[in-house]
Amino acid sequence: MYGQHVFPQGFVFGGATAAYQVEGATHAYGKGLVAWDEHLAQQGRFSADPASDFYNRYEEDLELCERFGINGLRISIAWTRIFPTGIGEVNKEGVEFYHRLFQACRAHHVEPYVTLHHFDSPLEMYRAGDFLNRDVIDAFEAYARFCFEEYKDEVTYWFTFNEIATNALCRFIEGSWPMGEKYRIDKALQCEHNMMVAHARAVIAYKQGGYAGEIGIVHCLHIKYPYDPNSREDIIAASRDDVIKNRLLLDATFRGSYAADTREIMDYLADLSGGKLDIRAEDIELLTKAADLNDCMGVNYYRSQFVRAYDGENDIHSNSTGDKGSSRYALKGVGEYRMREGLKTTDWDWIIYPEGLYDLLMHIKLAYPNYKKLYITENGMGYKDTFENGIIDDEPRIDYIRQHLDWTLRAVEGGVNVMGYFVWSLQDQFSWTNGYNKRYGLFYVDFETQERYPKASAYWFEQLSRTGHLL
Ligand code: BG6
Q1: Which terminal residue of the chain, N or C, has fewer Cβ atoms less than 10 Å from its own Cβ?
Q2: Which residues are catalytic (predicted)?
Q3: What span, in angstroms and rounded, lies between the C-alpha atoms of 38 and 52?
């Protein structure tokens, strides 16, 4: 432990959710389809209905927040509840649902932090190419403008997108998400760039609207360490992987353009899959304008990676079952992930490396000094919780969260402006490629009955949030 273990005044202790992972009611109340609906039905492994039935039980979840001192909640709006096909006719029932939800947050003294897009693009937009098609950027801006105006009296904190890189990576490189393609690095980078342009357009629209709140974006970032810090090849491999997952996003967010070396690596990477990037002068103008307007950025952090140079065949499988050791990540001309001796992993092969969060936060401060404020918008541990004699003893999760908060505090003491921490997740919910055996919640959900039960971590988190002291 370090320093005073006390969080700054006003620090937010929150929980996180995402519409598709908690709401259920995927085909109800006028909601339009998203690509995941079709994908999950084709796969037949699990359904996102009713998930944690948040659509009907948000009052109960907000009561739990209030009781356990959770004073912030990340919520996302499902685009297709507002515009069922992504654009055009508005679904009033969906609009009213979010009014009720945001008002209930206020009634329970829980500040909503609202994301406009959390992996749930409308099916029709997906079919038209999603963000690879620039018309979708126009549609997203229209949706964002609608939400800013509609919810201006209820929402103060906005995030445009959740995890642009995860979206691009899982769809175009890992191929594990709907309409997945594998090893198309060019498409992944183009998609990231176009989504950053969409982010910039929404930020500019928000500021032009003269609204009083704050706006930013959430990125999932992991430091990429060379597996052998003395190997030139591993350093290059880590740097290439870093461009795909971190640097492209951070340059676009804070510099408003790509540094020369970032751009050079982007072109190299696109060329590996035989593509060329379409990055226009007007895109850079928008990114530059938005770079000064962002109020904050959300950092989602779960793990770090150790990267070794790799020139073999592409070989990527993700672990979507919780069978330890069943994943592999090796991308020709980029690098392969290797385990460092002595480190632990989760059952899903995610390396537990809390120091990486400190390195990441310090890196942002040093490399992008114009950042204004950060939140840890997601951090938490996927775990196979057991419910025995009315108790859910999730000590490994408590330990995971405690260590990450400890390193967050060290970064705060090192001068990084971090103003909140949101546990992923508030309650157990639907996990994109794992369904329901990968639990993250502070509150256990019995998916048969939809009853909620506080886990040991919820009691631990309550003590933290009420005192601001990390014990
Ligand atoms: C983040 C996402 O990447 O990780 C969440 O924002 C997601 O939506 C979380 O659920 C954990 O990932 P997974 O695959 O373990 O559910």
Answers
A1: C
A2: 378
A3: 20
Question: Which whole-number Å values give the CA distances from 421 to 4, 54, 113, 313, 329, in the listed order?
Answer: 18, 22, 12, 39, 29
Nearest CA to ligand 1 atom 11: 431
Whether the CB of 162 sits within 6 Å of ligand 1:
yes
Residue 18 beta carbon below 6 angstroms from any ligand 1 atom? yes
Domain containing 207: what range?
12-221+353-465
Q: Report if residue 250 sits inside a domain.
A: no
Name the H helices within 213-296.
232-242, 248-250, 260-272, 281-293
Query: Is 378 an active-site residue?
Result: yes
Counting from 1 in the atom list of ligand 1, the atom nearest the Cα of 119 is 8
Index of the ligand 1 atom closest to the CA of residue 433: 14
Per-residue pLDDT tens listing for the chain (471 residues): 445 689 999 999 999 999 999 999 999 999 999 999 999 999 999 999 999 999 999 999 999 999 999 999 999 999 999 999 999 999 999 999 999 999 999 999 999 999 999 999 999 999 999 999 999 999 999 999 999 999 999 999 999 999 999 999 999 999 999 978 999 999 999 999 999 999 999 999 999 999 999 999 999 999 999 999 999 999 999 999 999 999 999 999 999 999 999 999 999 999 999 999 999 999 999 999 999 999 999 999 999 999 999 999 999 999 999 999 999 999 999 999 999 999 999 999 999 999 999 999 999 999 999 999 999 999 999 999 999 888 999 999 999 999 999 999 999 999 999 999 999 999 999 999 999 999 999 999 999 999 999 999 999 999 999 999 998
Q: Is 429 in the pocket of ligand 1 (CB under 6 A)?
A: no
Catalytic residue among 378, 395, 413, 462: 378
Q: Is there a domain that residue 333 lies in?
A: no
Q: Please state the atom number of ligand 1 nearest to the C-alpha of residue 162.
A: 6
Distances from the Cα of 280 to the Cαs of 128, 194, 197, 268, in angstroms? Answer: 21, 10, 10, 18
What are the beta bridge partners of residue 219?
Answer: 299
Q: What CATH number does the domain containing 148 carry?
A: 3.20.20.80
Is 457 close to ligand 1, i.e. is its CB under 6 Å away?
no
Residues 58, 97 contacting (CB under 8 angstroms): no
Is there a domain that residue 148 lies in?
yes
Residue 436 maps to a domain: yes
Q: Is 44 exposed, middle or buried (0-12, 13-18, 19+ CB in 10 A)?
A: exposed
